[in-house]
Amino acid sequence: MPLMPMRPILDHAAEHGYGLPAFNITNLETLLAVMRAAERTDSPVIVQASQSARKYADDMLLVAMVKAAAERFPTIPLCLHQDHGSSPEVCKSAMDLGFTSVMMDGSLEADGKSPASYEYNVDVTRRTVEMAHARGVSVEGEIGVLGSLETGGGEQEDGHGLEGTLSREELLTDPQQAVDFVKATGVDALAVAIGTSHGAYKFSRRPEGDLLAMDVIAAIHERLPHTHLVMHGASTVPEALQDLINASGGEMAKTYGVPLEEIERSIAMGVRKVNIDTDLRMALTGSAREYLKANPSSFDIRGMHKNGLARMEALCAERFERFGAAGHGARLSNRMASTTSTPSKAAVPA
Ligand code: 13P
């Protein structure tokens, strides 16, 4: 089955009340772990690549690898999404390569660091939607600014993050502005800012309402019940992986991610796409550290990643199960096959 746009996956998720983890991929190992977990749990898949991942892995090779995964796992509905495109040009380059979904992140200027005006955001997002929809590609927009309420934003992982700091009001999505934004741009999915941030250092304690603004999701969902919401910065930063890293020579300070129960709660309030990158990085590098510590004379790349692959696969499978996506892969691909194999009236020759 060819790569598919994100919209029908999210529509299916909304119809059946589940959420999709959207996993960031950087290399063969991360992609393979996601696909194996999806096959094991029969789940639809969204994999995404940031601009820096595209640069690191050579995006032409990255896309070829994802297309090969679609052939290798033919029953799994698979979407390839550009994570945090910083301009319509970046999104266009992704579409030209074969990405089937793009995020136009106009919440920040094209430098990815300075908060942008609402007008700028609407302009770049609307232009991207026009371009993408003409090619059957889905678009995610963002309103509000991703960043921890503890630190007021600040530098985050993967070259993404604010230069200065912002107040709570400046960071969090304004629900009424979200309504206006969706109407003005026609986005397929909307990323909302609720106090989460990229990377491992999200919270210095288990987040409660003062740090994780679940009420903002509820307020947006009430106004936009049919809009697919996206939660960024949704790694749980498992304590077991922090311990694994630290037991093998790492030096991670104690930290807290987004609790799985809160993500499950958000799915009940219209969150359909849940972005996860850090948890996979921790599973892979923690396992590599553990292997190299136990085998100091080894230089076996496959040996080094074997446990990491298994740990990432287990983590992905757990997310598919907990978010309710498990069991929906074949159903969605059957539906896609029946809709694409029935020619529309206009397509039938007279
Ligand atoms: P984490 O760093 O929490 O995994 O978030 C990733 C993300 O939101 C990518 O857009």
TrEMBL record:
It catalyses: beta-D-fructose 1,6-bisphosphate = D-glyceraldehyde 3-phosphate + dihydroxyacetone phosphate. Keywords: Calvin cycle, Glycolysis, Lyase, Metal-binding, Zinc. Belongs to the class II fructose-bisphosphate aldolase family. The active site is at D83. GO terms for biological process: glycolytic process; reductive pentose-phosphate cycle. Its cofactor is Zn(2+). It holds the Pfam family F_bP_aldolase. This is Fructose-1,6-bisphosphate aldolase. InterPro entries: Aldolase_TIM (IPR013785), Class_II_FBP_aldolase (IPR050246), FBA_II (IPR000771), Fruct_bisP_Calv (IPR006412). Dihydroxyacetone phosphate binds at G199, G233, A234, S235, N275, I276, D277, T278. GO terms for molecular function: fructose-bisphosphate aldolase activity; zinc ion binding. Signal peptide: none annotated. The keyword Zinc applies. Pathway: Carbohydrate degradation; glycolysis; D-glyceraldehyde 3-phosphate and glycerone phosphate from D-glucose: step 4/4; Carbohydrate biosynthesis; Calvin cycle. Zn(2+) 1 binds at H84, H198, H232. Binds 2 Zn(2+) ions per subunit. One is catalytic and the other provides a structural contribution. One is catalytic and the other provides a structural contribution. Catalyzes the aldol condensation of dihydroxyacetone phosphate (DHAP or glycerone-phosphate) with glyceraldehyde 3-phosphate (G3P) to form fructose 1,6-bisphosphate (FBP) in gluconeogenesis and the reverse reaction in glycolysis. Its EC number is 4.1.2.13.
